[in-house]
Amino acid sequence: MGSIPDPGEVAADLTPQPLPSFDDFQRQTSLMTSCTLLWKELSDHFTTLEQNLQKKSDALKRKIQALDTDTKASLASIKKREVTIDGSLEIALERLDDRCEAALKSIDSDRDDGEVDDGDGLLLALKAFCLKMRSREFWKFVITKKKELDALRSQIPMALGECVDPPRFVLEAISEVFPVDRRGERSEKGNDLGWACVVILESLIPVVMDPVIGKSRLMVTPTVKKRASEIAETWKRSLEERGGIENVKTPDVHTFLQHLVTFGIVKREDFDLYRKLVVGSAWRKQMPKLAVSLGLGGEMPDMIKELIGRGQQLDAVHFTYEVGLVNKFPPVPLLKAFLRDAKKAAASIMEDPDNPGRATVFPDTQIFL
């Protein structure tokens, strides 16, 4: 038989329990609200984390794809260079044989190289110097023909093609003024020959570029390339003697930068120096393309901003057109800003009766009143 329940316990169970107070209800409500808010906050946080991770994952995938594409392109380029090297060398050796044969034939030539009457005569004279590897006479001849600059630009490459060793010939030709001007007092009389150095260096590029794959491989011997690098280092060391980058003449800067591009001796660790030199000589019309050849294409937006900050709006417009950043730096506002600055400068000059020249020099141009 089952046990009989205690009457006292039965009575205790039948006693009514006290109802929860309003304060307890409020506490429970507040706790539920806090839990709900905390849950929402945690849910939003994890959702944000998930979205950020997805974005980073997508960005990483794009970078991997870009790297794969670059790697494939690099491997294809390397393979092409390996495949074409024999053909390029064969062509170069054939040209060398032709040049040697022509040079030997020209030894007995009695032509007066200094007398030139027309374009054909100019080319023949230049070729005669190149065939005989007479670099000093070639240099003296070129610097007397500044009025025929366009003809020189078109004919010097053809003449250099007759040299047995064009890169060495060019280094010897410009050695009188680059990397250090050896003329002494003559160099201080305004007889700047930087233009001749630039023309000769530019003319060498089509001569030394690979006949099969083009500018991506320059046919310059290691010995000459080492000599060109030493010349570049000598020029860089001379900067302190000249008073720093700010005091270097623009033609000298142009020659140095063109020298780097022509001989393929650009150094990534010197990019900061290249940028300062380019910005300091930005008014030179060849500077935008030269900057790209130096590998500064990625820094162009910052360089353009720097030019604008320096009040060189015209140079900035030139750079934007050359490197295709017109949409990012619209030229019209830049030109309007330049005109405002020009009007202010003109007004200040007109208000100054003691101004001797009645002229103001802007960073990249002159306005004469």
UniProtKB/TrEMBL annotation:
<keyword id="KW-0287">Flowering</keyword>
<feature type="region of interest" description="Disordered">
    <location>
        <begin position="1"/>
        <end position="21"/>
    </location>
</feature>
<protein>
    <recommendedName>
        <fullName>FRIGIDA-like protein</fullName>
    </recommendedName>
</protein>
<dbReference type="InterPro" id="IPR012474">
    <property type="entry name" value="Frigida"/>
</dbReference>
<keyword id="KW-0217">Developmental protein</keyword>
<dbReference type="Pfam" id="PF07899">
    <property type="entry name" value="Frigida"/>
</dbReference>
<keyword id="KW-0221">Differentiation</keyword>
<dbReference type="GO" id="GO:0030154">
    <property type="term" value="P:cell differentiation"/>
</dbReference>
<dbReference type="GO" id="GO:0009908">
    <property type="term" value="P:flower development"/>
</dbReference>
<comment type="similarity">
    <text>Belongs to the Frigida family.</text>
</comment>
